[in-house]
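Risk mitigation, structural track. In case the binding assays with iron/sulfur cluster fail to produce interpretable data, a predicted complex structure has been prepared as a fallback.
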Amino acid sequence: MKEIKKGYFNVRTEKNKLKIDYMSGFIEKSKINVDKPLFDKMCKDGCVNYNKKYSCPPFSPNFKIISKNYEGLFVIMFLCSLNQISSTEYNQVRIANVVMKSKLDTLMRNLEEKTGLKYLSTGSCRLCKPCKLKLKQPCKHPNKKRYSLESTGVDCDELTKKLFDISLQWYKNKKSPEYTSVLCGLICNKKDLKIIEKNLNLIINSFGC
Ligand code: SF4
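Fallback model:
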């Protein structure tokens, strides 16, 4: 039976105080739908980062290969209801994503330090602007570069439905959705869960305002 932990924390922005919901849980890798060729093609057809960042397709590895020595994935999702943000519809999504990605990156880097594991990120690597690939130079921070879950072929919408009963929603036709969410994962074994969960709580408690 899946064990899902849920909670929330508040973040203050210039104009709003946002309640960010979070949920986390472990899933065995055999239950994760991975289709690297499909997601590479979707990225090639519809994403400006294709072949422009070392963290993105066609450079990103297949989840099945990087998880081969592990039992599964510990997934953490942040979710923000957009009716809390007084702004244009596009800006609602942008503000929520900027706030959540920054907090989630902090959380995941901290969890890496505590566990010795590596995380799969939300979106492409944002450490350099532009990514050195665009300048035909080697990656500047190969040890810090992180791949997104979807760039490794993981079906993230199916993953969040399976684990949390929540669908991902996107800004479409100039309309913001009810909520927006970001998710990351730590490839791990079940024996790692205790230390992950203990530190997850400590780090998220330090976010409070
Ligand atoms: S660390 Fe810099 S150069 Fe390397 S993938 Fe990330 S953005 Fe690109």
